[in-house]
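Example 3.2
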Amino acid sequence: MPEGVWAKCTDCGAMLHELELKQNLRVCHHCSHHFLLPAHDRIHLLADPGSFEETDANIESVNPLGFQRYSEKLESLKGKDGLSEAVVTGRLAIDSQPAMIAAMDFRFFAGSMGSVVGEKITRMVELAIEERRGVMIISASSGARMQEGMLSLMQMAKTCAALARLSEAHLPYISVMTHPTTGGVTASFATIGDVNLAEPGC
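Structure, written as tokens:
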């Protein structure tokens, strides 16, 4: 069987043609299982045509703890699937309403939150406050990135502090949790939205 033509649903075991799966937004039409969806695909499903403008695309992780083979792993992932980190941030319009978005991508280091992910999300929220925009964060993460130790855990407090300032500015925050959303991401920004939405089984 040719590769990339069929996908097996991990919930019900149905064989799904990739074209049919794509047309159904990567949701199994037999059991409604939600497959992984890349960050850029999620953004383009939400954004008004031509409205998305990426921010902080060039911020890259370093290896602050000298973790063995971490730098090599990062290098092998950069550029793959058009990603430089586990989150994509930017401006967009949704139904003509200006907003900011952060969409995590599980394909990059299992969507783990290191210092760059926390920094990009924090900068995105700060820009939303400055430009008076609502915020949406779409989470897909295995949690804090262990290769960055305490620096990774610090992002939990940093992102929550930024979102507290957003709330003080009377701007809305919508959190969308996709499968999987776990660990430090769940324990920080993913669960403190003004509106929290979740995919089945996330």
